[in-house]
Hints:
Chain B: InterPro entries: AAA+_ATPase, ABC_transporter-like_ATP-bd, P-loop_NTPase. The complex is a heterodimer of chains A (373) and B (244). Chain A has 373 residues and is mainly α. Chain A has 14 helices and four strands. With 244 residues, chain B is α/β, with parallel strands linked by helices. The two termini of chain B are 35 Å apart. Classes of the chains: A mainly alpha (373), B alpha/beta (244). The interface between A and B is medium-sized, with 26 and 29 residues.
Amino acid sequence: MNIIRYIIQKEFRQIFRNKAMLPIIFMMPLIQLIILSNAATFEIKNIKFGYIDNDKTPYSRELVEKFNASTYFNVLSDYPSAKMAKSAMLNGDVDVILEIPQYFDRNLVREKKTDLSVTINAIDGAAAGVENVYVTQIIQQFNKNVQVDLMLYDTVNDRPQTIETIPLFWYNETLNYKTFMVPGILVLLVTMITLFLSGMNVVREKEIGTLEQINVTPIKKFQFIIGKLFPFLVLGLVLLTVGLIIAKLLFNVPIIGSIFLMYGYTVVYILVILGIGLFISNYTDTQQQAMFIAWFFMVIFILMSGLFTPIESMPQWAQLLTEFNPIKYFVQVMRMVMLKGAGFTDILPQLAKTLLYAVAMNGLAVMSYKKFT
Amino acid sequence: MKAANAIQVKNLTKTFGEFTAVNNISFHVGKGEVFGFLGANGAGKTTAMKMLIGILKPTSGKAQVANYDITSHANDVKKNIGYMSQRFSLYNDLTIKENITFFGGIYGLKKATIKTKTQALINDLGLHDEANKLVGSLPLGWKQKVAFSVSLLHDPQIIFLDEPTGGVDPITRRQFWEMIYREAHKGKTIFVTTHYMDEAEYCDRVSIMVEGKIEALDSPKNLKTQYKVDSMNQVFLKLARNIE
Ligand SMILES: Nc1ncnc2c1ncn2[C@@H]1O[C@H](COP(=O)(O)OP(=O)(O)OP(=O)(O)O)[C@@H](O)[C@H]1O
Ligand SMILES: [Mg+2]
């Protein structure tokens, strides 16, 4: 145990001695948090909205009126036919087309079920995703009104599924994207710093030759690995803390759930990342190689984390791949705990998977570290 | 195999792909001996040494160091040896004291032992003013002396030195050999590689390695008689030339 303590002491000495790295470790992520959280907003205003009203009833007009009232939509025109609407979209004159079918009102009342067709210009996928949310949200609100009206006529107490709604990805009651983005970006920063530092660390000792000197000592593999992991785990938690303080003070992001739970999960999560970092370190000979590989994983993890593109809209194979993305779980847990106040049992699936991942990665890291080649 | 030998090597071979870096070498080093392991650049000295210290697996052959088999008991070998790499391998971003603490610590020394050893080392090398300076800021000769002392912290029986005097001035080299002799007098076995033929004269016995094979092995005196020359330098040149 004492041996591990000496490694930890040495790592901390080196971290704090490196006057060039220290500001990078702490300042860079915080600046990124502030910039990205402000920039990565998905708010879109003045969406060009067109509709085709085949029903022409008070109900259908009421629905259109909902869109008119929204600040996000600019209701442009009532197209006489779907064909004309489509050609307008091709010209870029309209972003979203809502087609209200004939007997919309009547079907709602009689069959408690009707379809609404929404066409979104998907040239910009991210924008389309957001527009989708807005549209869905307005229709859902409208949908509830209809239900209330219906209840007066029909006393059957099953909740009628009146409108087939598109799945909701970006639901956030106040539509405050900063609140939504900050926990996610915090996740990225903690991940990036811990992955890069751990990935670079062992390979750096390989480069300068000190690893060989360590390998001629009778030190045990697990002692070495734990001694290397611990300082970065602490660093990751410090980063999380600073990030949370900024989230609270600067962005006023609510922290509803248990802080304790958040830290508990983060410890397990960082172990996964550090395991990956050490694994990379063991299989590379230079810091440059390690950096490239770390970036490779980082980019894939970020893009497939569900932070910028909803996982539900990915193809099936990609969704399957995201099961192996630790960032996905961390983003989910942070949002659940921070914004929704999720408890231990709510995050249990994510926690279990992350724990399994941590065991696997660190097992691999210990196995791939060879004192004797 | 006699138990009295510190190092016992039999048919040791290491190949990297098609290339044979160490080709079927056999020799022994007696306890307390200063053994010079000579050879031109790329002869295979470092490769052979790495196998003996248990960080490189031999392709074939056997070796015992401190009576432990190097493949099956690498960790026991490691407890009994000190190693100073050809590449400088202390931490440049730590002070002399911090380096000593770290290496003493991972060898499992007690805190009090580390403290007394640190003090002794600083006294011996006369580094009172430099003890809290970063190792990276020291001149090469001093760095090498510190590295040597650090490799002795855990009191090993056998010390492996890979070109310990590479690139340092003649005075420092002289001092370095005095340090080596002091350890030899304490009964420690020294296994040392060098490119300086005058240093070869300081050794009890030397082996000369050419392209992975040991071509000569004897005391400097006997080798000079055998090759009918009057310096180790000439022995070395003769051997190297014969091969070409
Ligand atoms: N890991 C390796 N993979 C492939 N070839 C290697 C490896 N390590 C060493 N070699 C080759 O083995 C040969 C012997 O190298 P080694 O370092 O043992 O020589 P040396 O006698 O120590 O030389 P020097 O005096 O320059 O230190 C060299 O040709 C070297 O290129
Ligand atoms: Mg060498």
